[in-house]
Specification:
The chain is of the alpha+beta class and 192 residues long. Helix content is 64%, strand content 12%. The chain starts with a helix and ends with a strand.
């Protein structure tokens, strides 16, 4: 019986040891897998955050580039088209002598490009109310249009728009800057 008890004890010990080994192994693997998954999850989250940040930065850079390209196109169109802006005296819409020379050149360009349709944009410096400057910008654009029509350009080829003081070239509060903002711009809107 003793032998039987001893054999049973050995068998019991072997079974228990095997059970503990088998029962204990998966937990260690699960813990390791859980830690690895958590580390991988954090790495994935960090990678996703980096990817989102890079995408946002790229999108912002693309928007800035598009805006810059649009401004460059506007400037290039004005310069390449041969149409130069004219400037005005403070609180005036009368065509100055230096503006007459520019308007004559603009009229010549328009006559040599009979398909071109333009918009004259009246602008003002920062002084005065919004409403006053809107009206003054419109009068400036109208004066430039009248001069071009008198030079033989068809009135139907010219539209007007006043930005008032809303589209300054220069933002310093000094006379040179204000002078640059008191202008009529010429923009080709169709044809050439």
């Amino acid at each position: 019986m003793e032998r039987r008890k001893g054999g049973m004890l050995v068998l019991f010990t072997v079974v228990m040891t095997a059970s503990l080994v088998l029962w204990g192994c998966p937990k260690k693997a699960e813990v390791a897998s859980s830690q690895e998954a958590q580390a991988n999850g954090q790495a994935g989250t960090i990678a996703q955050a980096e990817a989102v940040k890079q995408a946002e930065e790229q999108q912002a850079a693309e928007h800035a580039k598009q805006a810059e390209e649009e401004q460059a196109r506007e400037r290039a169109a004005k310069e390449a088209d041969g149409l130069k802006p004219v400037h005005f005296d403070f609180d005036r819409a009368i065509i100055r002598d230096d503006a007459r020379i520019i308007l004559k050149a603009n009229a010549e360009w328009l006559r040599s490009h009979p398909q071109a349709v333009i918009r004259i944009e009246g602008n003002c410096d920062e002084r005065g109310t919004i409403e006053y400057n809107q009206a003054l910008g419109q009068r400036r654009a109208l004066s430039a249009k009248k001069y071009l029509v008198d030079m033989g350009v068809a009135a139907k080829r010219i539209s007007l728009l006043s930005y008032g003081k809303e589209k300054p070239i220069c933002t310093e509060s000094i006379e040179d800057c204000w002078q640059n903002n008191r202008r009529g711009d010429f923009v080709v809107t169709a044809g050439q």
